[in-house]
Amino acid sequence: MKEPSKKRVSQAYRRFKSFCYRHRQGLLIGFFVIFFFLTFFISVIGGLRVFLPYTGELTGFPFGQKTYLLVFQNNNELRPAGGFISSFGTLQLTAGLPTRIQIEDVYGTIDDHGRLTAPWPMEKLLANEWYKGYTFRDGNFSPDFPASAQELIRLYHLTRPQEQINGVVSVNFHVLEDLLDALGPVEVNGKWLSKDNLFEELTNEVNDVDRHNLESLASRKSVLKSLADAIIKKIILNPFKLRKISDVLTRSLSLKDIQLYFTNQNLQQLAERNAWAGLWPGQVSGDFLAVDEANLGGMKSDRYLNRQITYHVRFPEEYFTSGGVPAATVSMNLQHFGIENIPLSGPYTGYFRFYSRPEQVKSAFALDTPAGQNNRPLEEIVQLAPGEQKTIVKNYQLSRDVVKDNIYSLYIPKQAGTDGDIYTLVIELPRGYRVESDDFDSRENFGFWQGPLTKDLDLQLKILPDTTPPRLVEQDNTALNQIALHFNEDLNQNYAADPFSYTVSDLNITHPEKTDQITIQKVVTTSKDVTLYLNGQTVQPEERYGVQLKNLRDTHGNVLSDRQITVVQRLK
């Protein structure tokens, strides 16, 4: 093919230039329309714009097809990956457009498979005359959402083996409430539903389902589908609220009220980078704490539970001197504020796991032995009636590597579905050490953190060595010829037990007419205490005696010398 001549190129350019000149006004308007539309679109999708470069992989555009498993979780009945799965569905996208949205009930045909043994302790706590074993609705038993998502796909394929699933999207009940807060009330089956009454109205609709009323069971699916249809319709009719909707979705992703799992590696990595994947950490550098709850027989009582968790880590002196290990105590106070006459609040049965290492989560779907064995987390089964409270306490030892290069690190993942449980963290070092941190409130040898857990926490504090001499806390003339000294930290016993480290003299303030000639007979010491046994002290009520401290030092070599303190004789 011949290349176009310069003359022909020049003619084409002149014609294009002439066309643009004649239609300059229309082209300018068109440009601004396109620019406005793109700007509006990018603006309204907010933080979700990170998916734009992956549109094809996400939606199947232009010639592909994608199918996503949608899981609707009620976090008022908490489960490890968010909440009890009350319904599910599939979303099919063909060439970038939705071609099928189907919502199903978890008590329907998804159960049509052979009996499966449930993970511990489901088989024990859920057993009743209706229980048919482990099935899809209980598949989110790992707090690591990718693991739960893969398990849900496996259970889904037991009854739908031919359908390819490209990902899983879990949506908690909180999201529905927040959407109605942004959109305003919607009408469903003649009732107006808003954020304030959504839980109570839906709970009343499904109340009989939890009592296994088959007629109510058949109708629940239509109620949830009608609500979804009403929300979608209101979003379409209110395009200028799209930014609010986008903000709700982005916030829900950050709070783990929406979690994403993709079989496509690029999309999964994108979700993980934005902390939208509910990913459990594989390894952590330092300390790790996770409290995980599964409501296994408490109806919707999590809506009325208050949880307060305290984590106290104590570093002994031996950690820094002779290879000791830190001790940890995690305590959780649970209060059940529900009463019998509010929606689905009643006696609560919960299963709690306390993780001290992230790798323990691998046992989430183990079917054989109770937790607490075979390198599994500490556990507790809790039963509470409305109005009751209980405190759970777990004590254990940490490994030495929670501190590296004098930096203590602590990672705490938030459980999906929780709503800002209050955590109090106390890191305690031996007396004399100091704490420096941007994350913890530093108070001498203590680090404090307190607040609601709304996202995964990754905290650090720096341990500063002891550079201050021992401080005398208390001195007392406990008996005639006996003086007791108490210090704030451990003393170097070689110096503390040496009689030449002290001199005692009569100050002649109250009884100048009589001067005691005092010598030290012996010194008895413990870690922080010194007792001086004297010769020469006589009875002189309220007389002052001077005790000169010379060359005392703590176990880190900090010297307290040439200080005189006063002791008053007040003998009983």
**Tally of discrete structural domains:** 3
Mass-distribution shape: elongated
CATH class of the largest domain: Alpha Beta
C-alpha termini separation = 120 Å
Q: Say what the CATH topology of the largest domain is.
A: Aminopeptidase
Summed up, the helix count is: 12
Q: Which key terms come to mind for this protein?
A:
single chain; 572 residues; alpha+beta; Aminopeptidase; Immunoglobulin-like; 3 domains; 6-stranded mixed beta sheet; 5-stranded mixed beta sheet; 12 helices; 30 strands; 32% strand; elongated
Compile the SSE list and pairings.
Blueprint: H1 6-22, H2 24-45, H3 55-59, E1 65-74, E2 84-94, E3 97-105, H4 122-125, H5 145-156, E4 167-172, H6 173-183, E5 186-188, E6 191-193, H7 198-206, H8 214-237, H9 242-254, E7 258-262, H10 265-273, E8 287-288, E9 290-295, E10 305-314, H11 317-321, E11 327-336, E12 348-355, E13 378-384, E14 389-397, E15 403-404, E16 407-412, E17 422-428, E18 434-436, E19 441-443, E20 446-452, E21 457-464, E22 472-479, E23 482-487, H12 493-496, E24 502-506, E25 519-525, E26 529-535, E27 544-549, E28 552-553, E29 559-560, E30 563-568
Parallel strand pairs: 1-4, 8-16, 10-17
Antiparallel strand pairs: 1-2, 2-3, 4-7, 5-6, 9-12, 10-11, 11-14, 12-13, 15-16, 16-21, 17-20, 18-21, 19-20, 22-23, 23-26, 24-27, 25-26, 27-30, 28-29
Helix pairs in contact: 6-9
